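Here is one chain, start to finish.
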Amino acid sequence: MAAVDAGLTIYEVGRCSTCRKLAALLDERGIPYEGVEYHRTGLDEATVRSLLAKSGLGPRDILRMREPLVAQLGLLEGDGAGDDELIAAIVEHPRLMQRPIAVRGDRALLARPIERVLELLG
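Its structure:
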């Protein structure tokens, strides 16, 4: 039985230069995708856990370490925050999540560099 072709979804932030570059790459190649402005729509715990499971990454891997809120919330590496605490913080403060994250079917990846998204399409 042939696999069903799943669409491409990009968790992005419109004003993020990396997200804009990824959108330009996909447009240039004629690759349709659904953009999710997760800063506006928010993220629930199930979505964050699904993104992690599909990507094989841990919560700390998708944490924006340069975001000042990371330190303010005590989420730095040596602060002892566990996975559940990191996920809860990302749900409460979506800006803590790295971007862009590309999802297709049962696979996801952090599209940094942006060309990594092509791994999902091959």
